[in-house]
Amino acid sequence: MKKAMAFCLAALMAAGMTTSAFAAAKDVNPGSVIFDQDSFINGKASVELEYDAVAEPTYTITIPMGVQLVKGGTTSTFKAEGISNLNGGKIVLSITSTRKSGMPDDCPDFALYRGHNYVPYEVQGFYKDGTSHFVSELNKEVMSFDEDGEYRYRVIPSKIIPVTGTYWGNITFQFDIVE
């Protein structure tokens, strides 16, 4: 009986050692915490938190709803306010579309249209330092800025008018933050 009891006790110990010796290692995911018996204080545990917060850039741009073009071009102004948290970047103004619903397919970008006639135009952006930049392609920088203020652009229609009358068009601006 003593031998049987010793054998059972040895088997129990071996089974216990086998279980603990071959237990799968616990994975720790980023941000997770392993609680050891020593880390509990009255059933409670604390976790330190860390978060690198970066304030999002903010700005408000006010653009006139329309511009009445005249021979030689028209200058328009938009207002930039509340510019903050650019983190060394700048706000870049570009034109993403010059198409208007109903425009004929053969009417090119940067053109005003009337029926099947069109008048090309270009856009000139003015920088604070007095320099300017002409644009007649989509998605190109018209101007850039990093502070509150009033900024000007000019729309200059072609001098060649195919047919007298009123021509229509559209400019869709895009403002992006670029570093």
Account of the 3D structure:
By secondary structure, this protein is mostly beta strands. The chain has a domain of 113 residues: Immunoglobulin-like, CATH 2.60.40. It is 11% helix and 35% strand. Strands 1, 2, 4, 5, 6 and 8 form a six-stranded antiparallel beta sheet that branches. A hairpin with a 2-residue loop joins strand 4 and strand 5. It is elongated. The termini are far apart. About 13% of the residues have low confidence.
Features:
179 residues; mainly beta; Immunoglobulin-like; six-stranded antiparallel beta sheet; three-stranded antiparallel beta sheet; elongated
Topology of helices and strands:
Layout lengths: L1 H20 L36 E5 L11 E11 L5 E8 L13 E4 L2 E10 L5 E4 L5 E5 L3 E9 L14 E7 L1
Antiparallel strand pairs: 1-2, 2-8, 3-7, 3-9, 4-5, 5-6, 5-8
Q: Mean pLDDT, rounded to whole units?
A: 82
How widely separated are the two ends? 84 Å
Strand content bin: 35-45%
Q: Can you name the CATH architecture of the domain at 66-178?
A: Sandwich
Helix count equals 1
Short description:
The chain is mainly beta. It has one helix at residues 2-21, and strands at residues 58-62, 74-84, 90-97, 111-114, 117-126, 132-135, 141-145, 149-157, 172-178.
